[in-house]
Amino acid sequence: MKLADLATRLDLRVFTAKGKLDRPVAGGYAGDLLSDVMAHAGKDDLWVTIQVHPNIVAVAVLKELAGIVLVNGREPAAETIERAEREGLPILGAPAAAFELIGRLHGLGVKGS
Fold first, then answer.
1. How do the domains of the chain map onto residue ranges?
2. Closest by Cα among 105, 61, 109 to 83
């Protein structure tokens, strides 16, 4: 499934890289500890987190993730938006809690890494 499809089906807000939503999503990973994400997330995964600081962009680019979804209504910091736009990394947002959003992703066929 493509990131654009998930964004539409889950009514996600697109914060950055609107032109890059054609990326395929191979799976998903949820975590807020950057070292854990670096150790376990896979290429083309969609990362679900509450973190909003610029370092999330560096981790997502390093791991070649499809994108990041911020949960609990969080919005990325201004510097995070700038970095994500430079890198072409989609950051999306959901008002839902992580548990709810992950359940919905799983119901759409997105499996964990």
1. 3-107
2. 61
How far, CA to CA in Å, does 59 sit from each of 52, 64, 97?
12, 8, 22
Q: Which of 63, 100, 103 is nearest to 47 (CA)?
A: 63
Give the span between the Cα atoms of 89 and 98, in whole angstroms.
Answer: 20
The three-class DSSP label of residue 47 is strand
pLDDT (tens digit per residue) in 8-63: 999 999 999 999 999 999 999 999 999 999 999 999 999 999 999 999 999 999 99
Nearest to 4 by CA among 25, 22, 30: 22
For 41-56, letters b (16+ CB in 10 Å) and e give beebbbbbbebbebeb
Tokens of 32: 């807020």
Q: Which amino acid is at 84?
A: A
| Reported CATH class of domain 3-107 | alpha beta
Q: What are the pLDDT digits (tens) for 70-93?
A: 999 999 999 999 999 999 999 999
